[in-house]
Design a protein that fits this description.
Layout: H1 9-14, H2 20-34, H3 41-55, H4 74-87, H5 121-132, H6 149-156, E1 161-163, E2 179-184, E3 187-197, E4 202-209, H7 217-222, E5 231-238, E6 250-258, E7 261-262
Antiparallel strand pairs: 1-6, 2-3, 2-6, 3-4, 4-5, 6-7
Helix pairs in contact: 2-3, 4-5
């Protein structure tokens, strides 16, 4: 099974073109590599054909990376629309002061107009988590404490977020609602996945960006993203491009949980 992708069956599986012959050819190739000329070769082939292929339902297999949710409904959809309306106000970018609370005693359960005078990327994510109910208060966070699941959970005082296994890979396809993070040489960025276009292999991101913009500004503008910088905005990036999975210090995606359940 570990050779599934290596032997080119992933694309065939997604197109529902994997036949038993494909599977047997793959097994034969593996046996040729691992233990050629053994007396048990025929038995291994028969066991795969008559037992393994049926137990694992290989004729129904697909490359799981293609199964990402690209549309959502219910609570998540409503919150994402609220967040899009928020970032599309092009609130000025600012890292001056912590609008969310650093200490529990100062934490509040709502976001006021004063909190929206200026935003940075992590504050945008903090508002998102509050609206989802992942957190009960508006906490101050930054990318330096969003690098792994343990630190992220500690910072937001909640276990209702998880790092998505395998999301550091350039092949990974995020789901709507995921949060990306990168951190490099003391600087970092994060944002919220608003939409995934598998045909164009692009991701629409809700973010607050600094003066320099992203490493994929040309793509963003050419594909209908907001060209304004140094503010909150909606941007469109190539899924595995320089603004996301190919950025130095890429940490992958975190997925919020609602009531302890995956979105």
């Amino acid at each position: 099974m570990a050779y599934w992708f290596s032997f080119g069956l992933s694309k065939k599986a997604n197109a529902k073109q994997v036949t038993l012959k494909d599977q047997l050819d793959t097994v034969g190739s593996i046996i040729d590599t691992v233990n050629p000329l053994t007396s048990t070769r025929k038995d291994r082939e028969n066991n795969f054909k008559n037992i393994t292929s049926k137990v694992f339902k290989l004729n129904e297999c697909k490359n799981s990376v293609m199964e990402a949710k690209t549309e959502v409904g219910g609570e998540l959809s409503s919150v994402l629309e609220e967040m899009k309306q928020l970032v599309d106000k092009h609130i000025p970018y600012s890292q001056e002061g912590a609008r969310g609370a650093v200490k529990d005693k100062n934490a509040v359960s709502n976001v006021t107009d004063d909190d929206l005078v200026g935003l940075d990327c992590s504050e945008t994510v903090s508002i998102y988590l509050l609206k989802l109910g992942v957190t009960d208060k508006f906490y101050s966070i930054h990318t330096g404490i969003m690098l792994n699941e343990k630190d992220f959970r500690k910072a937001i005082r909640s276990n209702n977020i998880e790092h998505v296994v395998g999301s550091e890979s350039k092949d990974f396809i995020p789901e709507v609602g995921d949060i990306f993070v990168w951190r490099n040489n003391g600087a970092g960025h994060c944002g919220i996945v608003y939409a995934v276009d598998q045909e164009k292999d692009s991701v629409t991101i809700l973010e607050a960006i600094g003066k320099s913009g992203s490493r994929d500004e040309s793509y963003n503008i050419a594909h209908g993203g907001e060209k304004k910088k140094y503010c909150s905005r909606t941007a469109i990036y190539p899924r595995s491009g320089k603004a996301l999975a190919s950025h130095p210090g890429w940490k992958g995606y975190f997925r919020p949980l609602i009531s302890g359940k995956k979105l």
